[in-house]
Amino acid sequence: ASSHDLQEPLRTLMNYLQLLDHSSRKELSAESREYIDVGIQCARRMRDLINGLLDYSRLTAKGHQFTEVDCNVLLKGVLQQLAGSIAENGAVIEGGLLPEVYGEPLLLQQLLQNLISNALKFLKNKPPKIQVGSEKRHGEWLFWVKDNGIGIEPRFYDKIFELFQRLHTREEYPGAGLGLSVCKKTVELHGGRIWCESEVGKGSCFYFTIPFKGVLEKAG
Ligand code: ADP
């Protein structure tokens, strides 16, 4: 389905709810006004989910330009994007020297951004301390994003990478459950793997690998 097909009915629904709100708000009871507000909120949420799903489905190898990418530049871009949330949380981010890899710059930056945003989000009452690092291994680079947040039980290590899978309510932690699915698809497009290790209450570490260019080409 095209983006338009999915979004059009929702846009119409939202417009009509807003019209109803503007034209009759004063005459309606508090209860009826609340029904409209909830309807509008749900329509907005649905719009965000559809946009997320469309982004996910557009993530294919086609149309992406693979090139040599300096991951230090990507990380700098991510930290600029997240500067507000970093300052607000009093987060300390330690970034090691990162390598140049063969990949799609926009997708790789999004990957780092999703992992670091999660590290900033899933915490309880302590300032986040986040380490971003990498290490050369046989035929590939290993990257990690490590936090001191709430942690994840081992039985959920795989599940969290599936579409819409979340371990908390939206009231506890906002989100749609798409970030890690997008991360997984991105890493796999680059010929790598992604996984997590964690200790509940202490923190989580997300690892991913990006094969060297030659290895990727040989794999086809
Ligand atoms: P969202 O962030 O929108 O919930 P994600 O796909 O990014 O969606 O993550 C899925 C779930 O994995 C989260 O809802 C959360 O339960 C868990 N999770 C992800 N990152 C972390 C982290 N750094 N620490 C603890 N839990 C995490």
Task: Report on this structure.
With 220 residues, this protein is of the alpha+beta class. The protein contains seven helices and seven strands; from the N terminus they run H-H-E-H-H-E-E-H-E-E-H-E-E-H. It has helices at 3-24, 30-58, 71-81, 83-89, 105-121, 179-189, 213-218; strands spanning 67-70, 92-95, 100-103, 129-137, 140-146, 194-199, 203-211. The strands form two sheets. Strands 2-4-5-7-6 form a five-stranded mixed β-sheet. Strands 1-3 form a two-stranded antiparallel sheet. Helix 5 (105-121) packs antiparallel against helix 6 (179-189). The longest helix has 29 residues, at 30-58. It starts with a helix and ends with a helix. The model has no long low-confidence stretch (mean pLDDT 91). Adenosine-5'-diphosphate is lined by residues 118-119, 122, 147, 149-150, 152, 160, 165-168, 175-181, 204.
First-last Cα distance: 30 Å
Small-molecule binders: adenosine-5'-diphosphate
Low-confidence stretches: none
Helix tally equals: 7
Radius of gyration: 20 Å
- Class of secondary structure makeup: alpha+beta
Shape: globular
Major sheet details: 5 strands, mixed
H and E order: HHEHHEEHEEHEEH
Q: Please report the total strand number as a whole number.
A: 7
How are the strands of the largest sheet arranged?
Answer: 2-4-5-7-6
Strand content: 15-25%
Q: Helix fraction?
A: 40-55%
Oligomer: single chain
Q: Estimate the mean pLDDT confidence.
A: 91
